[in-house]
Design brief:
mainly alpha, 0% strand
Length: 180
């Protein structure tokens, strides 16, 4: 079981790359998150990138890839629209922590619909707290957040990805229990 735990966690860790790649694509296509339209579009683009790499990271024990990608895309599209509007598209530390909490809650709620068991119940509140932390880390190290990115940078992504590595481990254990 230790090998499975390690393999699941190690497969998940490279998924942090979906955050900066999705954020960069969103910046190129949607521009800064400074209104409702750009927020929805940037959130959907970034969510699709993050969802795709996370679906890969959970294989073969995770939910169906299409469901996970769709949930992440919808969750971040809605979450970024609500979160950025709630803070008036502000980029101060407090603004981004609140925006991150709202985004994480929306993504977590959407993704939880694809999960079962304990992971589903805890996923939305955990992701809310972690996305707030991701923005706090990114802002605190001096990333130019005034650009109004759709998602926190690589530093925040590393923290969030490391903290969420428990998900594929839990899914792998559930699969092992089902098989026995």
């Amino acid at each position: 079981m230790t090998t499975t735990w390690k393999a699941s966690a190690l497969r998940w860790l490279p998924t942090f790359l979906g955050f900066p790649l999705g954020g960069f694509a969103a910046e190129l296509i949607a521009g800064p998150v400074d209104g409702l339209g750009p927020a929805v579009l940037a959130g959907a683009i970034t969510g699709a990138a993050i969802g795709a790499v996370q679906a890969w990271g959970m294989a073969p024990n995770g939910p169906p890839a299409r469901q996970w990608i769709a949930a992440t895309t919808a969750g971040l599209g809605v979450g970024l629209a609500l979160g950025s509007a709630a803070v008036g598209y502000g980029t101060g530390l407090g603004d981004l922590v609140v925006q991150g909490a709202i985004c994480g809650l929306a993504i977590g709620a959407a993704q939880a619909l694809t999960l079962r068991g304990r992971a589903a119940l805890l996923w939305a509140p955990a992701l809310s707290a972690l996305w707030a932390l991701g923005w706090a880390v990114t802002t605190s190290i001096g990333v130019d957040v005034d650009t109004q990115w759709a998602v926190f940078g690589s530093s925040g992504a590393l923290v969030v990805t490391a903290a969420t590595a428990v998900l594929p481990v839990l899914l792998g254990r559930r699969t092992l229990r089902s098989a026995s």
